[in-house]
Design goal:
39% helix, alpha/beta, five-stranded parallel beta sheet, 5 helices
Length: 135
């Protein structure tokens, strides 16, 4: 059983987090801590310079609110929003926060990712902890 579980989520309509949350509950010990993480991909500087600051701020606020609603579905989970490349940011967050298990959903891969999706592939190969991939 794990004590510090990270559940990365995508905040769009095409991703269902319930399977990841259920797996996290099953893998947790009685006093486990959960973190629900969303990684916001960075906007290239040449694009960001053309977007009004209030639009960027509103977008981040909407992401935060969506993440908090999503994390509330996993009792006691702490929501965290970080920026970066998804696979790298997940691994870095896990390493910096003593995560002992990552529960990660994977999409159906294309030919470039024969077995699992690119984010899941990076996390599986670079994480220093257990990784459970939900398919």
């Amino acid at each position: 059983m794990y004590k510090n579980i990270l559940v990365p989520v995508a905040l769009d309509k095409d991703h269902d987090t319930q399977a990841s949350f259920e797996a996290a509950r099953l893998l947790a010990n009685a006093d486990a801590e959960f973190t629900v993480l969303h990684v916001q991909e960075p906007i290239p500087a040449y694009v960001a310079s053309q977007i009004p600051e209030e639009v960027l701020a509103n977008t981040r606020k909407e992401l935060q609110e969506s993440l908090h609603r999503n994390a509330a579905e996993l009792s006691g989970a702490k929501p965290r929003l970080v920026s970066g490349s998804a696979g790298r940011a997940i691994v870095d967050f896990a390493n910096e926060n003593d995560i002992d298990c990552i529960v990660l959903a994977s999409h159906k891969p294309g030919i470039e990712n024969i077995f699992i999706g690119s984010t899941a592939n990076r996390v599986v190969h670079h994480a220093n902890c257990s990784v459970h991939v939900i398919r």
